[in-house]
Amino acid sequence: xxNYLLIPFLPLAxxxxxxxxxxxxxxxxxxxxxxxxxxxxxxxTVITLLDVLSGKVVNEDIYSWIVSGEFKVSVGxxxxxxxxxxxxxxxxxxxxxxxxxxxxxxxDKGYYRFFAYLSLFTFCMLMLVMANNFLQLYFGWEGVGLCxxxxxxxxxxxxxxxxxxxxxxxxxxxxxxxxxxxxxxIFLTFGTVxxxxxxxxxxxxxxxxxNFLGYDVHLMTLIALLLFCGSIGKSAQMPLHVxxxxxxxxxxxxxxxxxxxxxxxxxxxxxxxxxPIFSLSETALMIVALTGxxxxxxxxxxxxxxxxxxxxxxxxxxxxxxxxxxxAGVGAYTAGMFHLYTxxxxxxxxxxxxxxxxxxxxxxxxxxxxxxxxxxMPITYWTMLFASLSIAxxxxxxxxxxxxxxxxxxxxxxxxxxxxxxxxxTVVAFLTAFYSFRLIFLTFHGKFRGTYEQEHHLHESPxxxxxxxxxLCIGAVASGWIGIPxxxxxxxxxxxxxxPVLGHPEAHGTHAEEWLVMAISIIAGFSxxxxxxxxxxxxxxxxxxxxQKFNATYKVLWNKYYxxxxxxxxxxxxxxxxxxxxxxxxxxxxxxxxIVNGIPKGIxxxxxxxxxxxxxxxxxxxxxxxxxxxxxxxxxxxR
Amino acid sequence: MVPLNWYLMLSAVVFMIGVFGFLTRRNIIxxxxxxxxxxxxxxxxxxxxxxYLQDMRGQILAVFIIxxxxxxxxxxxxxxxxxFRNKDTVHADEMxxxxx
Amino acid sequence: xxxxxxxxxxxxxFLPIAGAVLLLLIxxxxxxxxxxxxxxxxxxxxxxxxxxxxxxxKSTHLMQFTEKHAWVPSxxxxxxxxxxxxxxxxxxxxxxxTILCVLISWNxxxxxxxxxxxxxxxxxxxxxxxxxxxxxxxxxLFWEAMLIPMYLLxxxxxxxxxxxxAVKFFLFTLVGSLLxxxxxxxxxxxxxxxxxxxxxxxxxxxxxxxxxxxxAFFAAFAxxxxxxxxxxxxxxxxxxxxxxxxxxxxxxLIKMGAYGFIRFSLPLFPDASRAMTPVMLTLSVIAIIYxxxxxxxxxxxxxxxxxxxxxxxxxxxxGIFALNSQGMEGGILQMINHGVVTGALFLSVGMIYDRTHxxxxxxxxxxxxxxxxxASLFMxxxxxxxxxPATNGFIGEFLIILGGFKANQWAGxxxxxxxxxxxxxxxxxxxxxxxxxxxxxxxxxxxxxxxEIITLLPMIILIFxxxxxxxxxxGFMHESVKHLxxxxxxxxxxxxxxxxxxxxxxx
Lengths: 639, 100, 507
Description:
The complex is a heterotrimer.
Chain A: H1 6-26, H2 30-53, E1 58-68, E2 71-79, H3 81-104, H4 111-130, H5 134-152, H6 159-190, H7 195-201, E3 209-212, E4 215-218, H8 219-234, H9 243-246, H10 252-261, H11 266-273, H12 275-278, H13 282-305, H14 309-329, H15 333-360, H16 378-391, H17 398-412, H18 418-444, H19 452-457, H20 463-478, H21 493-502, H22 511-538, H23 542-549, H24 551-558, H25 563-611, H26 618-638
Antiparallel strand pairs in A: 1-2, 3-4
Helix pairs in contact in A: 1-2, 1-4, 2-3, 2-4, 3-4, 3-10, 3-15, 3-20, 4-5, 5-6, 5-10, 6-8, 8-11, 8-13, 10-15, 11-15, 13-14, 13-18, 14-15, 14-17, 14-18, 15-16, 15-17, 15-20, 15-21, 16-18, 16-20, 17-18, 17-22, 18-22
Chain B: H1 4-24, H2 28-53, H3 57-87
Chain C: H1 8-25, H2 31-55, E1 64-72, E2 77-83, H3 88-104, H4 113-132, H5 136-145, H6 147-157, H7 162-190, H8 197-202, H9 207-224, H10 233-240, H11 243-268, H12 270-295, H13 301-321, H14 325-356, H15 367-370, H16 372-385, H17 392-407, H18 409-434, H19 450-468, H20 471-489, H21 494-506
Helix pairs in contact in C: 1-2, 1-4, 2-3, 2-4, 3-4, 3-11, 3-14, 3-19, 4-5, 4-6, 4-11, 5-7, 6-7, 7-9, 7-10, 9-11, 9-12, 10-11, 10-13, 11-12, 11-13, 11-14, 12-13, 12-18, 13-14, 13-17, 13-18, 14-16, 14-17, 14-19, 14-20, 16-18, 16-19, 17-18, 17-19
């Protein structure tokens, strides 16, 4: 019985119905199709999850996709524990966000289009997580990128939105370049691109080296790093993180679904899925851990000073994704997945709350123009507060458990960079708490700083929006409870569940150390919250003073370390300049065309010289003829 | 009896007169007359050889040439008249339509 | 297998010519009748070609649907036709594209309508003939015959600079073809006075001769493809040609170059081909990157798509000269893909050009607001062009990069960068034309009508069909490609001998 096929194909059907009939027939009812489809997927997901819990793993091909020589690949599905976790995350978030969008997008002229894209995205994301081979994974991977492009550029008549969509797609292509080569390397190494044979044979190649572009490299490191390129792009890690903040041009439900809960975590999923390969290469793991740690620190520092409510959350997402990679890099794949799972709830919630705030503020995004919204929109306030407590790692909330597990496993694991990334992780925990509560305090506390009309317009959002908030809030608080560590008397059910796929990370430390690590992270979290309270509730002049005192630092942070400018300077502009001035101006025009036009011109020149002989004067011709006769006669006589 | 050489010399002299006339004179009528000289120079040698070899075919050929020359004269003069009507001149240097 | 003795290939070749003759008999003023007759003829030809697809025997590499009659017995020239797994798809593509060309020109060709449709039909005959010929003389005849209607299409119904473009197109291709003709004649004497392609393929030729002939054929094919650096005729021809001309040019004509490499260069000169692979791969990679980067600086819609063809055809030649089954099959499939996608892009550009009469990208903007259906279809073509999975472009590009990487790592890696730049220029183009604020010049344009949707629909179907179930098409090629690769890769190992000689000289 493969009713699991309904999980991806229901949303696909919804997409087709909406895109074909939405504009003329469905119009404002378009959401029904999509919501029913996604809700259906969710129900089937729950059934599938129960199957998986009872130990049933599906791995089968549906039909043969590409066959060429010895290259064979099918469309096929693998549903194991890891997939099940992702399925739950994706369908739950997707269903809630579909419902939320009914309220948020009401009255938009592209209503049907929005729901069509959301459903298409859900389909692609599900294909991504359910694939049983790398090529289908790649299909889903590009598919979600495409939907992200559509949805970021949803308001396509605005230039920033269409720019941002394009940027997201192209930046991701840089990552996918590596990912694609990685798949090719996998095929050339293993002769197949199916997970199962690849992962089971990976150990055979554990010490193999290969000549790649003239360098001898360790085969598994090469494959792992090529795959990781894809992750870097999709999950917005350094140095390909630039697209995610800009992606906030899209409607807020999109940011919540794609750029917080699901798509951007695909990179982490990929690393977790390929853990048998990554585990064979210490170098690759170290690079993953360092990339994650540095990105999380880097993004958190930028988040400190931004004023755009959605961009702060976007940098927070980058930072948290870094956390997940940090976990994967120290071999704690389950902890990474655990954080992915809790993060999906509280980060989606943060975005949806931000959307609710924007809804009330008529699209205003600037924190400096908000304040005191608490009394106008209590539900939004409380849900957002819980989400922030969760992300800040306050004990008892979901974020606390996942973050603590990552930090403990980083500290106690065998990774050579473990202690280092643990230290960074702790600093980031502090920064995260600080900027999250800076956002809360500036938005909901104090006095309203916007215009009179805006203040007059403030209101709580409609039920379609607040109900998903409340449901997600329950997730943000409670989703961590299935992974409470043994130390606190929990069962670590989450880790146990994933162990068959991802293995069990080994911790080498005493209970005392574990308590210490936990205490430090709690202190970091609370001091972040406290400092934010001090800066933005009590002594509100401190931030301004600091910004003036450390003007240079502030500017660098405000301009996001000038990475965008750097790329524009070293990649975009030189390429276009070369195209304009060298390729069109010199090679095509001056070299190739010159040769091409030069040959006929040369023939013309030659004939112009030869033409002079043709005087048209009869007697000249006769004279030449006579001369010719004389010469012939002379030759004949003298011979 | 006049020896064959004399005829041949006469023929050569007439031929050279024709050639020089054709090359040096600019009046098309005179150039045309030079061509007649060339043809007749050939006629002289043909008839001379015919007599010397006692073979009538040479004389037959000479008669042919005279005929052709007559036809040629008719067409040639007609062309010259047509040219003259168009250009008001029969000067050869003015006729450079074939210039490349 | 002749389908009960029915000469299906000859029918395909001569039916359009008969249609053209019929058009001659129709009064010039009766334009509607002319259009309908050409539409019906082209559709009939397409329907007749469908049995090729359904009745084709995929389990053999041998020629099928063969016909052979003596033509000039004294010179041993035969009228000999047949198709195998490599050529069948191109025959079908030609018959399909012709219908679309007739449809797209319905309202846009206003002068000399009769001559226009006659040219299109003759073009169709010649195209089908090229792909079916099994005799070199016959092949050459069709090959050159194609030039004339195309020259007229560009030169008579083209844009403002049409004469320059038409003459350039003509001269470029003619120079190449003449070198090939010399090559053909040399082969004729070398192989014992025969023009039979299949017979010629079974012989082996001296290595040095192979090299010379390879380059002679290369001249003809490389110009057609067009490979870097003989590509400069293409942007001019595409830009100036009427829509139908651009479509035929992009979809079928430039495929003939690559088809020639597969059909003639590789099996006739296997040793030389193998020896020249590095050169070919280099040229292909240059074309991919060069064509892509140059697209970034284009200001003219059609010119941009033309340069993107250079880049995409670079992929095709890369795949072919990778000399492994993934590359080769990917290359052949990518030829079809490129025909479909670029053909569709030119059709689409033609549609909007009919409305605005400008090709400047800067004159557009916000078209998606005015023409939503058109914008969505164009989006599908754009995505197929940048090789998104589930569209046909992905299958082709992936197989080619896989094959290319196998043959030469650098080639694979560099070709893959072409995919990044490809996304760059196509999405940028799409943004400038369809997104952002609506330009005055496009505000209030009517969306595409039913005829135009029907014109684009086959392309949409093919894009997803090949993308989702490529085996329907790849299945045709397996046997033929396998046989071809055996021929190429197990040649008489000449360069080994050459290398030995060189080593001895060095010693």
